[in-house]
Amino acid sequence: MCQAAKPYYYDYLCGELKQVPQEIYTHIAACPACQKEVQWLKEADAESEECLPQTLQAMAHTAQMQLHCALLNQPVRCSTIKSFLPTLLIPDMGVRVSTPVTEHIKACPDCTHDLEVLRQSKLSPEQLASLSIAFTQQPAEQTEKSSQNIMARILLSQPELRALLNRPDSGIVTCFRPKGHPDSQDTPAFTVEVTHEPSASSPASAETAQPVPRQKPTASNRPGWLFKSLAAAAAILVITVLLFHNTTVVATDIGQIYNALKEVQQVKIIQYDAESAQPLQTVWISHSKSIKMVETKDELTWYDLSGKIRKIKSAATAQIQQIPLDDIAIKAIQGTMDIPWGLLPFTKTSDLPNGAVWTKMASEESDQVEIYNLDWTDQSLTNDTIEYQWRCYADAKTKRPIKVEWRTKTVQIPELELTNYSEITYLTADQVQQAIDEAGF
C-alpha cells in the first residue's frame, strides 16, 4: 500500500482529496512511514522548487528498476513485460544495464518489433506513461472514465497500438539469473535461459514445448495481479514526474493560449472545411477600429460599429447594400468580436470538462511551432459517446495559435476524423484598413 500511495502524496499534501482513492487516503493518514514522506515533501517543496521534481524523478526511476529486479530468476513472457515497453522510451526513464526485461526484448523478435513500433509512433512522455498503465489493465478497466484512461483510449484507437495490446505471447520465455561470482571481468555477471512454449497463435502441442522449470516461491515471485498493480503505480509516478518537471509535456498550458489571445487587437481568420481547399469564410477583426469584415463565396460584409452601419457587397454583381445598425445588433456583433472567435473549444478555461487531456505532440514543423492536443468526451442527445480532439499549432514564443484543427469520433465514425480547421494571421490596424480599402468599402 505504501508503494501504491506514493503517486498520491502530492494530492494528499495539497488537499486535492477528490483525486485520492478512499483506501489510499485512509492508508496515508494512518501510516507513519507515509506521513513521514509526506512531511518531507512538504518541507522540501518549501525549501527548493528544484528539489521536489528531482526527488520524484529518482523515485520513479527507482520504482521502475524495482519492477525489473522483481523478475530476477522468474520466467518472463511477452505479456509480462508489455507495460515496460513504453516507459523504456521515456527520457531519463530508460535502462542502461541488462535486466530481465531488456534481455527478453533482445531474445524476442516480436517484443523488439513492438518497441520499434512505439519508437516510430513518436509519442510524448505522458502518452507513453498512459499507454504503460493501459497495458497493465484488463479490457474492462480500460473503459473506466479517468483522465489518463481517456488518453489511453484515444491512443489505443490507433490500429498499430491496439495490435500491440492484443498481441499474444510469442512463445519465447526467458529467465534472467544473476551469477553469485562472475568468472572474470570480461564475462557477464548473469545468464539468460531461453526456452519456448506454444504461442497463442501457434498450433504446436504441449508435448513439443520446453517449459521453464517451476521456481520455488521467493520474495520476488509476486502474484500476477500484484505485479500489475505495482507496474501501474510506477507508471502513474512517472506521469507525476512529467507533470512537475518535463518541459516537453507542460511547456505551454492551455491557459497560456487563452491569455495570449486576450491581448490581440487585429486578426485575420480563414476557416476551411476538411473536404474542400476553398475557404468557407475569411474574417477580419479590428478592436482598435471597431470593425469586422466577413467574406464568403457569395458576399462580403463590413461592420462599422462606430459608424453604426453594415455594408454588404455581392460577389456576383459587386453592388453594395448599406444597412444601419441598432444598439441590439451592435451588441450582438461585438460579442462575435471577442475571443475565442470560434478558434478555441471553450469560452474560458473553467469551462473545460472533467477528464479533458492536454498533451504536447512531437513537432515536425520547426522549433518555432508547438503542437498541442486537447482531447475530451461528451454524450450526444441519444447518449452515444462522442470523442473530440482540438489540435493547436502555436507560436512557441508568443503562444498564439497560428492554426487549429477539429476532429471528432462517433459510433458512425470509428476513427478521429478531421472536420474543419482555421488558419490565423495577426495584423496591424493598417493592414486591416488595407483589406477594407481593397474590398471597396
Strand order of the largest sheet: 9-8-7-6-5-4-14-13-12-11-10
Strand count, sense and barrel status of the largest sheet are: 11 strands, antiparallel
Low-pLDDT stretches are 139-148, 203-223, 243-251
Sheet-strand content, in percent, reads 15-25%
Mean pLDDT across every amino acid position = 79
Q: What radius of gyration results from the CA coordinates?
A: 28 Å
Provide the structure class: alpha+beta
What gap, in angstroms, lies between the N and C termini?
71 Å
Global outline: elongated
Number of H/I helices: 17
In percent, how helical is the residue content? 25-40%
Please tally the β strands and state the result. 14
Describe the overall structure.
With 441 residues, the chain is an alpha+beta fold. The protein is 39% helix and 23% strand. It contains 17 helices and 14 strands. The strands form two sheets. Strands 9-8-7-6-5-4-14-13-12-11-10 form an eleven-stranded antiparallel sheet. A three-stranded antiparallel sheet has the order 1-2-3. A hairpin with a 5-residue loop joins strand 4 and strand 5. Helix 8 crosses helix 9. The longest helix is centred in the middle third of the chain and has 22 residues. The radius of gyration is 28 Å and the shape is elongated.
What's a concise summary of this model?
With 441 residues, this protein is of the alpha+beta class.
Features:
alpha+beta, 39% helix, 441 residues, 17 helices
List the helices and strands and how they pair.
Elements: H1 2-5, H2 9-14, H3 22-30, H4 32-47, H5 51-69, E1 75-76, H6 78-81, H7 84-88, H8 100-107, H9 109-121, H10 125-136, H11 147-156, H12 159-166, E2 172-178, E3 190-196, H13 224-245, H14 247-250, H15 254-262, E4 266-273, E5 279-286, E6 291-295, E7 299-304, E8 309-314, E9 320-324, H16 327-337, E10 357-361, E11 369-379, E12 385-395, E13 401-409, E14 417-426, H17 429-439
Antiparallel strand pairs: 1-2, 2-3, 4-5, 4-14, 5-6, 6-7, 7-8, 8-9, 10-11, 11-12, 12-13, 13-14
Helix pairs in contact: 3-4, 5-13, 8-9, 10-11, 10-13
